[in-house]
Every structure is written in C-alpha cells, then in structure tokens.
Design a protein that fits this description.
This protein is of the alpha+beta class. Helices cover about 35% and strands about 25% of the residues. The strands form three sheets. Strands 1-3-2 form a three-stranded antiparallel β-sheet. The relative contact order is 0.13.
C-alpha cells in the first residue's frame, strides 16, 4: 500500500527541466549549472550517498540508504539542483539601497565603490559571474546565476554599513 506521504516525497524528488534547457542539450546545462565548481553528479557521489538519475527531461535524486544525514542531504541536494535550474533559465537578482546623507554607490568596471559616511571609500571587487547594475546613486541591482554567491556578495556589501535601528541609515 502506498501512502500519501510517499507519493508527495516521490513528487519532490523529480525535478523537471523547462522547455529551454533540452533545446541546447543536457551536457551544456551541466557545464553551465555549477555549485562551487562541482557538477551535479560529482556533488552527489563524492560527498554523500545520493544517486542522481539524469535524463533529457528530468533529474531524479535517490538516497542510497536511510540514515538521518542522507535524508537531510537529499532535500538539500534537491534544493541545490532546483536553484541551478532556475539560475540558468531565469537568473537571480537582489536589490540594495543605501540610505543616508552623502551615502552613494559607484560602479566602475568590475569594482563597486561604496561611500557610506566613513573617511575613506570602500572598494569591493565584483565576483566572477555576478553583474552589478547601478540604478541611481543610492540603488544597485545585483544579478547572476549562482544564488549562493549572489547572496554572499550582497551580505558582504550590507555588512559595510548595516542599517541602524532608529533612523534606518545604512545599506
């Protein structure tokens, strides 16, 4: 007898590719969609016992044992692969706004300069795979295909001057 929970889990294990991906082939997708420079099959086989079955239209992730850590990593692997699919097809964006008198962003090439009330400019090198678009002097938009790297860079920018609780000045 099959329970409803097992059917829900089975549905969560299948990740379908959008129509745009099979048109240029799965090998190019795997090449483009990397997490920390590790391809899907390598990340599943070397770190924890999870077996990905990759076809032209979907990826099915199967745990090889029933240990607690393997079950935890099964969900994490599903989320990572889903983020890779979304990143390659749609991309991820984050917006940052700086609030304060004289506070501003300046983008020049691959360098982001932040003037945030200190006696010096904070210059940040933009990581590879992330693009920074300056909307105005006080707003920027970060975009890229890797959700983890994008969030890490946004957090690094925000850590320069976190918003203070009373007036809200900061990034």
């Amino acid at each position: 007898m099959i329970s409803i929970q097992s059917l829900e889990k089975e549905a969560l294990q299948q990740l379908h590719f959008p129509q745009a991906i099979p048109s240029f082939g799965l090998s190019q997708f795997i090449f483009l969609a990397k997490i920390n420079k590790i391809i899907i099959s390598n990340i599943c086989n070397t770190i924890y016992p999870i077996n990905p079955n990759i076809t032209e239209t979907e990826i099915t992730v199967e745990p090889l044992n029933n240990l607690k850590h393997t079950r935890e990593m099964h969900g994490t692997t599903n989320a990572n692969i889903r983020n890779m699919i979304i990143g390659v097809t749609e991309g991820f964006t984050k917006g940052l706004e700086i609030v304060g008198v004289g506070y501003r962003f300046n983008v020049k090439g691959n360098t982001l300069s932040v003037q945030d009330g200190k006696s010096h400019l904070d210059n940040l090198e933009v990581p590879e795979g992330i693009t920074v678009e300056q909307i105005s002097n006080t707003e920027i938009k970060l975009s890229g295909i890797d959700k983890c790297a994008l969030g890490k860079f946004a957090a690094e920018i925000r850590s320069l001057r976190a918003p203070e609780p009373y007036k809200g000045k900061g990034i």
